[in-house]
């Protein structure tokens, strides 16, 4: 079991970690990845600050319910955007004991099938997450009545769309590897 995932192609390239350094892609794909990373980092920092503020306020006898609600908001967005950051950088957990023993060409085909299944799963989550966001339009946070819960549930389809974009990038890369291995 590894934490680097084997999803970058049979040649080991892709948006991965090489020699301990995260590689970044050029162009819009790479720029989006950098924005996602900073956004996820900001969410984690804000969660820490909000939980600290909430704990300190409760300690001095002045609880602030809105801090926990905002932390929940940033947790949802940080999780789903952060999942794409992990996916882009090959940091998803994978069990590849059997796959390592296959030939590079078979590994690439298996990887292509895996990526297509992931794309279908993500597409389903985009549809269902959008439906969920629509159904939560009337719900709001207890501590923040002006903030609709829809903004939290929109993290699901948004994060899945980002992961779908990354998956499409990986599918294209894997198909390129398979084409090169034929010629």
Automatic annotation (TrEMBL):
<feature type="transmembrane region" description="Helical">
    <location>
        <begin position="146"/>
        <end position="165"/>
    </location>
</feature>
<keyword id="KW-1003">Cell membrane</keyword>
<feature type="region of interest" description="Disordered">
    <location>
        <begin position="1"/>
        <end position="25"/>
    </location>
</feature>
<dbReference type="Pfam" id="PF04290">
    <property type="entry name" value="DctQ"/>
</dbReference>
<keyword id="KW-0472">Membrane</keyword>
<dbReference type="GO" id="GO:0005886">
    <property type="term" value="C:plasma membrane"/>
</dbReference>
<keyword id="KW-1133">Transmembrane helix</keyword>
<dbReference type="GO" id="GO:0022857">
    <property type="term" value="F:transmembrane transporter activity"/>
</dbReference>
<feature type="domain" description="Tripartite ATP-independent periplasmic transporters DctQ component">
    <location>
        <begin position="47"/>
        <end position="172"/>
    </location>
</feature>
<comment type="similarity">
    <text>Belongs to the TRAP transporter small permease family.</text>
</comment>
<feature type="transmembrane region" description="Helical">
    <location>
        <begin position="108"/>
        <end position="134"/>
    </location>
</feature>
<feature type="compositionally biased region" description="Gly residues">
    <location>
        <begin position="1"/>
        <end position="17"/>
    </location>
</feature>
<feature type="transmembrane region" description="Helical">
    <location>
        <begin position="39"/>
        <end position="58"/>
    </location>
</feature>
<protein>
    <submittedName>
        <fullName>TRAP transporter small permease</fullName>
    </submittedName>
</protein>
<dbReference type="GO" id="GO:0015740">
    <property type="term" value="P:C4-dicarboxylate transport"/>
</dbReference>
<keyword id="KW-0813">Transport</keyword>
<keyword id="KW-0997">Cell inner membrane</keyword>
<dbReference type="InterPro" id="IPR055348">
    <property type="entry name" value="DctQ"/>
</dbReference>
<keyword id="KW-0812">Transmembrane</keyword>
<feature type="transmembrane region" description="Helical">
    <location>
        <begin position="64"/>
        <end position="87"/>
    </location>
</feature>
<dbReference type="InterPro" id="IPR007387">
    <property type="entry name" value="TRAP_DctQ"/>
</dbReference>
């Amino acid at each position: 079991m590894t934490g680097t995932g084997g999803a970058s192609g049979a040649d080991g390239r892709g948006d991965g970690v090489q020699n301990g350094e995260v590689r970044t892609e050029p162009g819009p794909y790479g720029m989006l990845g950098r924005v996602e990373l900073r956004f996820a980092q900001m969410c984690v920092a804000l969660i820490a600050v909000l939980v600290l503020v909430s704990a300190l306020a409760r300690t001095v006898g002045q609880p602030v319910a809105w801090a926990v609600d905002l932390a929940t908001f940033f947790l949802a967005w940080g999780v789903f955007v952060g999942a794409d950051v992990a996916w882009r950088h090959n940091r998803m957990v994978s069990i590849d004991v059997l796959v390592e023993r296959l030939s590079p060409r078979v590994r690439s085909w298996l990887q292509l099938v895996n990526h297509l299944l992931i794309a279908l799963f993500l597409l389903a989550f985009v549809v269902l997450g959008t439906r969920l966001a629509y159904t939560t339009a009337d719900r709001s946070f207890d501590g923040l009545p002006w903030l609709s819960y829809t903004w939290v549930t929109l993290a699901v389809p948004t994060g899945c769309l980002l992961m779908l974009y990354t998956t499409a990038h990986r599918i294209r890369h894997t198909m390129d590897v398979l084409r090169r291995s034929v010629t």
